[in-house]
């Protein structure tokens, strides 16, 4: 139990009479790459939105445990920014960068919740603020180098290629120093080369001590990356296990390929 | 060279304009003589004028497209002249010093009348910069900005009337009152965005004005408060002319102060958070920015400047009444921000100077000046929708890093 950094139990979300998520359990251990898969409309993104505070869950518990000091926090009903402060950051399925800000500034925004300069500091630009500002720039630059965008620091984010925008989103999320990173379809719309680079990047991020929960449709990517897979369909969890277990699970095959039709 | 299709379109446009303006330009009813004058020659001028204007506009657009096409091919994106100057410190510093010297020596070379107009224009510069924080940087469309201006003005008028407080004592108080009101307004509208926010702030502006107009015991109603003292200078007595010059210098100082503060804020952690809030609220929160706090700071800080200028306004005109704080004022300040360039300090300064000084110097056109004014606004928005000077993102250099990275 103490091993787990995220424990979701019985998470339910109703929209009116519709159960978008129905009593889903999930847990993530430190250093793991966990994938959440399922057909379109299975409730994966809703699940993410509940975790990150954009939706308030109707029932269930989300417990986040900081691996550094072991403090446990119940995330239900917390504001998104507080959750990010607790150490869980995310990317979005439909890219949500700050389009007219520069690449570097996008990452610098990620540093917001880890820095403290206030309004008077900004006006008087005292040494502490200046130092902090320099740290933000340096650190953001290092992150950009990690995601391979350090040549485009001053480019406006909207001018980046699609794959680069995805990488920038990951970089921005990394800037908040999360121990758990949620990626919502990071490979969507990427070409094979970009996907390959992404796999390398995710492995690298994971090896640097971030745990990862990702939603993805690219089965090749999911199977090669993840340690464990959770499968959702119609808001319910229908399977979980290692890639091999999930691949041969009849319920999963049924969800993806439909009912067996007698030949 | 010029397609016939476009000529046809321009002809149609001019016909349409002639038709639209027919009732006001051609028919003139003389109620005393009980006759109708048909001014057919006007119809001709309207048609010809709109034809020429539409062709000129089309030529301009075609040229612009062609140039944009060329740019893509050559890949050398040439920055606009003004922005290149603004980016280079070796141009920027001498230029700003020259502007400052000009501003300081202005009253010595120009008449009191000119100085007075300039004071007004500079007050709008500060108002524009204040609203720029809210609308241009944080992206919260505020149509009731004039309410904070009114609060500042009435703070001075009322505190002076009841407690005999001086200008310098009230200046910060007026600003703080307005800032506090900004927070009060901010709370209920935190969830709103875009059009909805605009409507609520519009209502808020009207509420403040109506309170001032109808609560006679508090604000003396529509008749306003007169005999507000001008700012004092260590108890020195000043005649009318030097009084105006003095206020001019106060406003110049305020402009410099405002530019300094706003500039620093924009390139700070807080300024970035505002920009991010404008771009994408959900992503902003997901990145750990407290939406509530950031919005409230933007609202109150924007209001603060309006409050300061309000106090100065009351001191300058020595009289306040609710008629000075109508929606039109909010609209003008908003036009300054939009026309100048959202989020751009230099743009807003230019916007304010143009929008406030132009009607003054267009007086030569007498009754057509508002028409000319409106026309210039429309033309501006069609050809330069980003404003006169659009905001440039700050760029960073990483020489040491990139050399080690290779």
What's the CATH class of the largest domain in chain B, please? Mainly Alpha
Category from helices, strands and their pairing of chain A: alpha/beta
Average of pLDDT of chain B: 85
Name of the CATH architecture of the largest domain in chain B:
Orthogonal Bundle
Number of strands of chain A: 10
Q: Number of domains in the coordinates of chain A?
A: 1
Summarize the structure.
With 263 residues, chain A is of the alpha/beta class. In chain A, 37% of the residues lie in helices and 23% in strands. Chain A is globular.
Plain-language structure description:
The complex is a heterodimer of chains A (263) and B (406). With 263 residues, chain A is an alpha/beta fold. Chain A has helices spanning 44-51, 80-86, 103-110, 119-124, 127-146, 162-174, 192-207, 219-225, 243-247, 250-257; strands spanning 6-15, 18-28, 33-37, 59-65, 72-74, 88-90, 180-184, 211-215, 228-233, 236-241. Chain A has a single domain (6-257), classed as P-loop containing nucleotide triphosphate hydrolases (Rossmann fold), CATH 3.40.50.300. Chain A is built from 10 helices and 10 strands. In chain A, helix 3 crosses helix 5 (127-146). The model of chain A has no long low-confidence stretch (mean pLDDT 89). Chain B has 406 residues and is mainly α. Chain B has 2 domains: 4-74; 110-383, ABC transporter involved in vitamin B12 uptake, BtuC, CATH 1.10.3470. Helix content of chain B is 74%, strand content 2%. In chain B, strands 1-2 form a two-stranded antiparallel sheet. In chain B, helix 10 (240-266) runs antiparallel to helix 13 and helix 11 (269-279) crosses helix 13 (291-317). Chain B is globular and about 70 Å long. The N and C termini of chain B lie far apart (51 Å). The interface between A and B is large, with 50 and 33 residues.
């Amino acid at each position: 139990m103490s091993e787990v950094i995220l424990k979701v139990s019985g998470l339910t979300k109703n929209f009116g009479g519709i159960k978008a998520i129905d009593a889903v359990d999930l847990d993530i251990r430190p250093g793991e790459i966990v994938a959440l898969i399922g057909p379109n409309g299975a409730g994966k993104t809703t699940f993410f939105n509940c975790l990150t505070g954009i939706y308030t869950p109707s029932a269930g518990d989300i417990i986040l445990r900081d691996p550094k000091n072991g403090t446990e926090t119940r995330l239900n009903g917390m504001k998104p920014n507080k959750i990010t402060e607790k150490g869980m950051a995310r990317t979005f399925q439909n890219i949500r960068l700050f389009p007219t800000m520069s690449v570097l500034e996008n990452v610098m925004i990620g540093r917001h919740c880890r820095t403290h300069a206030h309004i008077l500091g900004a006006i008087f630009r005292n040494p502490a603020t200046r130092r902090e500002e320099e740290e933000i720039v340096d650190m953001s630059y290092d992150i950009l180098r990690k995601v391979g965008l350090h040549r485009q620091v001053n480019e406006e984010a909207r001018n980046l290629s699609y794959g680069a925008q995805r990488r920038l989103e990951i970089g921005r999320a990394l800037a908040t120093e999360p121990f758990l990173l949620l990626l919502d379809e990071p490979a969507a719309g990427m070409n094979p080369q970009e996907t390959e680079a992404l796999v390398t990047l995710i492995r690298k991020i994971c090896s640097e001590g971030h745990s990862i929960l990702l939603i993805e449709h690219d089965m090749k990517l999911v199977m090669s990356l993840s340690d464990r897979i959770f499968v959702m369909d119609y808001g319910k969890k229908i399977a979980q296990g290692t890639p091999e277990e999930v691949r041969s699970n009849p319920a999963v095959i049924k969800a993806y390929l439909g009912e067996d039709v007698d030949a | 060279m010029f397609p016939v299709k476009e000529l046809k379109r321009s002809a149609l446009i001019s016909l349409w304009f002639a038709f639209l303006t027919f009732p006001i330009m051609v028919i003139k009813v003389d109620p005393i003589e009980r006759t109708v004058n048909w001014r057919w020659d006007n119809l001709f001028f309207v048609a010809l004028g709109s034809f020429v204007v539409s062709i000129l506009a089309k030529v301009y657009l075609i040229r612009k497209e062609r140039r944009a096409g060329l740019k893509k091919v050559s890949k050398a994106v040439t920055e606009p002249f003004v922005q290149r100057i603004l980016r280079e410190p070796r141009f920027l510093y001498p230029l700003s010093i020259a502007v400052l010297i000009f501003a300081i020596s202005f009253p010595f070379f120009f008449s009191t009348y000119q100085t007075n107009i300039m004071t007004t224009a500079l007050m709008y510069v500060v108002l524009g910069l204040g609203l720029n924080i809210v609308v241009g940087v944080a992206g919260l469309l505020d149509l009731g900005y004039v309410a904070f201006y009114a609060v500042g003005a009435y703070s001075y008028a009322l505190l002076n009337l009841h407690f005999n407080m001086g200008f310098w004592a009230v200046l910060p108080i007026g600003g703080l009152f307005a800032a506090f009101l900004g927070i009060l307004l901010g709370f209920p509208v935190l969830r709103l965005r875009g059009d909805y926010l605009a409507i609520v702030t519009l209502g808020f502006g009207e509420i403040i004005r109506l309170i001032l107009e109808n609560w006679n015991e508090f604000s003396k109603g529509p008749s306003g408060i007169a005999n507000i003292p001008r700012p004092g200078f260590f108890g020195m007595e000043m005649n009318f002319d030097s009084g105006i010059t003095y206020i001019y210098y106060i406003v110049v100082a305020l402009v410099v102060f405002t530019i300094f503060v706003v500039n620093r804020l924009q390139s700070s952690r807080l300024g970035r958070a505002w920009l991010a809030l404008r771009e994408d609220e959900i992503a902003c929160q997901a990145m750990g920015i407290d939406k509530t706090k950031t919005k409230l700071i933007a609202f109150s800080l924007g209001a603060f400047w309006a409050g300061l200028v309000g106090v100065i306004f009351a001191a300058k005109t020595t009289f306040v009444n609710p008629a000075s704080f109508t929606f039109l004022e909010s609209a003008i300040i908003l036009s300054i921000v939009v026309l100048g360039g959202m989020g751009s300090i230099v743009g807003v300064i230019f916007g304010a100077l143009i929008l406030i000084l132009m009607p003054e110097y267009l007086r030569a056109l007498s009754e057509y000046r508002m028409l000319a004014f409106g026309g210039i606004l429309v033309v501006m928005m069609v050809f330069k929708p980003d404003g006169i000077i659009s905001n440039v993102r700050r760029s960073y250099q990483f020489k040491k890093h990139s050399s080690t990275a290779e």
